[in-house]
Each structure stands twice: as C-alpha cells, then as structure tokens.
Predict the 3D structure of the following.
Amino acid sequence: MKTHHFTCIKCPLSCQIELIEDNGTVLEIRGCTCNQGEQYALDEFSNPLRIVTTTVRVTEGILPVVPVRSQAPLPKSLIADCVSVLNTTEVEAPVTCGQIVCSNILDTGIDVVASRDLERRH
Ligand code: SF4
C-alpha cells in the first residue's frame, strides 16, 4: 500500500488530499471537501496533465524569444519532450498573441501558441 499526497488546486481552499492505493488500485481518498477534489486526486494519480509554458526563439524580433503555452493541458509524461521540441523551434517576427508556433505538438492534437505580441526589429 502507498499513500500519495496532493494539494487540490480546484479552489482557494487548497484541501490536502491523501490517495491510498495498492498496485495501482485506488483504495481510499481522504481529505476532500467536495467531489471535485476526489476527481482531481484520481486524475493526478492516473493521468496528470499540465499546461506547457516556455519560450521559443524569434528571428528579427525586438526580443530574442517569445513566451508560449500549450492551448490545452498535456500529459505530464510528455512535457520534457515538448520542451525539447520547442527548444529547437524558431519563429520570425512579427509574432501575434495566439499565433500557432508549433502545430499538433508530438501528435497530441494540441497546438502551442504565442502568449504575447512581439514586434519586428526596425
Ligand atoms: S476538494 Fe473541493 S473544496 Fe477542497 S480545494 Fe478541492 S475543490 Fe476546493
């Protein structure tokens, strides 16, 4: 048996949740004040997801990089590979907020977009 500890991020109460499992079978979830927390703990245990945020190189821009983020959460297990792909991605200025800088990253069906405008260097 193993106990996993999570802090629920679904509301400001930040309930401290314990999920007890045995060889992948969830036996008990404690500490949730509501059902959302229970679902959050189950998701964190079985398939944790995260929005990817990083920067991408820009050519001819007023800054050398632009912040980017995935349009939807990706499996936590893919985040390092996503960042590797984005480390080798380059876009040309001008860049507009919401512009796709990497389409369908790692065949997940999720695009990575710019988080801000970036003007072209004069
Ligand atoms: S378990 Fe419910 S009450 Fe507690 S932090 Fe999560 S959403 Fe909020």
